[in-house]
Amino acid sequence: MYINSMGFYVPSERVPNEYFTSVNGLTPDWIEQRTGIRTRSKAAPDENVDTMGIKAVEDALTRLPYDIKDVNLIVSAHYCAYDTVATVAHKVQQEFAVSGAKAVYVSAACSSFINGLEVIEGYFAMGKADKAILICSEQNTYYNNESDPKSGHLWGDAAVAYFISKDRVSENDLRIIDVYTEGLGDVGKGPGGVLLRPKEDGIKMPDGRDVFIHACRYMIYALNKSLKNSGLEISDISYFITHQANKRIVAQVAHMLDLPMDRFYNNIEELGNTGSASAPLVLAQNIEEIKKGDKVALMVFGGGYSCGCFLVEK
After folding, report:
1. Alpha-carbon distance 78 to 159, whole Å?
2. How far apart, in whole angstroms, are the C-alpha atoms of residue 300 and residue 40?
3. How far is Cα 45 from Cα 22, in angstroms, rounded to an integer?
4. Is 122 exposed, middle or buried (0-12, 13-18, 19+ CB in 10 A)?
5. How confident is the model at residue 195 (pLDDT cuts 50, 70, 90)?
6. Same structural domain for residues 23 and 64?
């Protein structure tokens, strides 16, 4: 599979750490030392998961080497939802008049984007599609309880969109080397590690330590699975991107892999935890800095639990 174009949308508002002192009693230094976050992105009152997803697609269209109407599969992959019936996939299909395309929604917490890639891979393998849009849009602040001292200060909003084809379309395409995902509902706190119950108390992380331990372990586990599938070694990978849940998680993963932090791209300092949009968003934001022939590994861990990795070559 090949990535033909990437686009993203990040709301302009930034909520600084200072805001939370009066909301949940946490000081700016305390938050930054434990999470690496200084500010987080926040959608405007007239924005939502749908509008951000559409804007991410619009951004990707500026670099797309074919007509969007050639797309025959639209996958929205995320856990935040403005409407659980009319999904982002269907909104995008309507907005851009992509007639005849399949439209589906996939969710696996912060692993959703990579699970979406795997779904597309399956459609391609069955011959049921050959060009797809994958949209990941998260509006965590829509659900967030800011007064929660455990996780109310973590969340940010953003959207990312990738156009993906079965075969190479242009010399600028990124080659997807491997896609790996795995459910981990039987590990640690599993489905109780991170919760999103909109009618009750919003998005919560009851046991951050359990999430931390398993995120570090299983992002590396997923990376090793993808490397083995591809016949590659750690030394073959130029850059690494992890799910942007916590800067200390990134540092711990780097330590466990015996790699310097300058091999890891991040955006958590400015945007906070943007959920399943975070890792693919980091790639889209930094793609111009990556050289032709470089390989990048994107590793994720999702509440529920789940993990995934995909490898790309520019």
Report:
1. 10
2. 20
3. 22
4. exposed
5. confident
6. yes
CA 38/CA 197 separation, integer angstroms: 27
Angle at alpha carbon of residue 51, lines to 47 and 54, rounded to 5° = 155
Residues 15 and 160 in one domain: yes
Q: Which amino acid would we find at residue 111? A: S
Give the distance from CA 294 to its chain's centroid. 21
What percent of the chain has pLDDT above 90?
91
pLDDT tens for each residue of 14-28 = 999 999 999 999 999
pLDDT in tens, 96-143: 999 999 999 999 999 999 999 999 999 999 999 999 999 999 999 999
Q: Are strands 295-302 and 306-313 parallel, antiparallel or unpaired?
A: antiparallel
Helix (H, G, I), strand (E, B) or coil at 265: coil
Global confidence as pTM:
0.95
CATH number for the domain that contains residue 14: 3.40.47.10
CB 115 within 8 A of CB 173: no
Identify the sign of the CA torsion 312, 211, 303, 228. positive
H or E, element range at 175 = strand 174-183
Task: Residue 281: count other Cβ atoms within 10 Å of its Cβ.
Answer: 27
Q: Which two tokens stand for residue 305?
A: 């639990």
Q: Pick from 131, 165, 199: which residue ends a domain?
A: 165
SS3 308: strand
